[in-house]
Amino acid sequence: MAKLTPQALLENVKDLGTLPDVYNRLTQVISKPTSSAAEIGEVVVEDPGLTARLLRLVNSAFYSFPRKIDTISRAVVIVGTSELRHLALATTVISMFNKVPKDLVDMQSFWRHSLSCGLFARELAMRRRETNTERYFVAGLLHDVGKLIFYMERGESSRSALERCKEKKETQFRSESKVFGFSHTQMGSALLKQWNLPVRLQQAVACHHNPLLAVEYPVEAATIHVADVIANAWQMGSSGERYVPPLAPDAWDALKLEPSMIGSVISYVERQFEETVDIVIMGQ
Amino acid sequence: MYENGFEMALIPTDKLESGMVLAADVNNRLGRLMLQAGTQIETKHIRILKAWGVTEVETEGEGKGDSEELDSAVLEQASDEVRDLFSHTDLEHPAVAELYRLKVKRVAERREAEAEDG
Q1: In terms of CB atoms within 10 Å, which end of chain A has fewer, N or C?
Q2: What is the ipTM of this complex?
Q3: Model's pTM, two decimal places?
Q4: Tens of pLDDT along A9-29?
Q5: Helix A184-194 and helix A172-180: axis angle, to 10°?
C-alpha cells in the first residue's frame, strides 16, 4: 500500500478544491494597481453575507475605531486593501467546512479555539508593533484546518489517533504522526498551498508546532506557535488537543516579549472574543 | 474592580510602585504612546509619567494579595487540574510559568464563583 501523503488525502476532498469565487475576484481586483476602493467595494458588495460580516467586523471591538464605517469602500480606505482581503478570507473559510462528522469534533468548539488562536496571534503581533496584523489573525484561524481534513477523510483513523491521545497521554499532533505518518500541520499547509495562499501563511501553519523549521518566515511561525500555546491553555474551545503543547523557547525568544505581558494579552483578547465569534462564526 | 478575571485598578501616579504592571497603554496629551500595556513599572517610568503630567494609570493586580483572597483548598484543586493540562510543557520556562499561574488563578476564581452560586 502506498504511503499516505497530504496531497493524496486532498484529492478526494470535494468542495474544498478552491476558495469561493468572491474571494478570487477580490484577489484579482486588488492585484490591479489601478483599482480604486470603490471598485474593490463593488466586488464585495455582490456577496451580501460577506459584506455584512466585514462591516460588522470593522465596526467591532476587533478594531475599536472611533467612528462608524458604513461602506466597504470606506473600510478599504481605513483598514487597507490587503487587510480587508485577509478578513474576507477569514470570514469565508468557515462556511466551507460543513461536512465534518459531528461525533469527531464539535465544530463550534473547533472554530472557537481557532478564532482565539487568531486573536492571540494578532495581539502578540500588535505588541511587537507589526503592521498588517490581519495576516496573523488569518494564520491563527487556519492553523488547525488540517485536522478537519483528517476528520472528514479518515474518520476511523482520526478516532484511533484520539484514543491514542487518551491512552498514552500524548499530544494530538504526536498521535497523528504515528497514525497517519504526518500531522495536521503538513495537512493544513497542503490545503493552503492548493488554495494558492501565500507561502508565508503556508509556513506559519506548517511549522506551528515546530517553529524552528520555518526557514523563510520564522516570526510568523513563532507567533502562531506561541498563540496556540496560550489558546490551548486558556481553553476557549477545542480542536481536539487535550494538552497545552510544549513551548519552543527559541520561538518565545524570537518574539522578544516579556512573560508579564501575557496577562494583558489574554485580557485584550477576551474583550474581543465573544463579539468576534458572533460575527465570524455565528454570522454564517 | 475585576475585568475578565484580572484585577485592574486606576492608580494615581504618585501612588505607583515599581513592579506594578500597566493594564492599558499610556498616551501623553498629544496622543503619542508613552508606555505600552504590559510594561512593568520602574522608577524611571514614574518620573517620566509625572514629568508629562499623567495623573493616573490603569494597572493590573500582580498577585499581591489576589491569590491570598482565594481559598487555599480551591487553589490546590485548581493547581492539580491545571498541572495535567500543562503536563507536556516545561513549567520552569518563565513564560510557561506565568501562563500556568494565570490559568490556576482563573480556574480557582471560577470554582469559587460556582461554589457561591451553587
Answers
A1: N
A2: 0.92
A3: 0.83
A4: 999 888 888 999 999 999 999
A5: 80
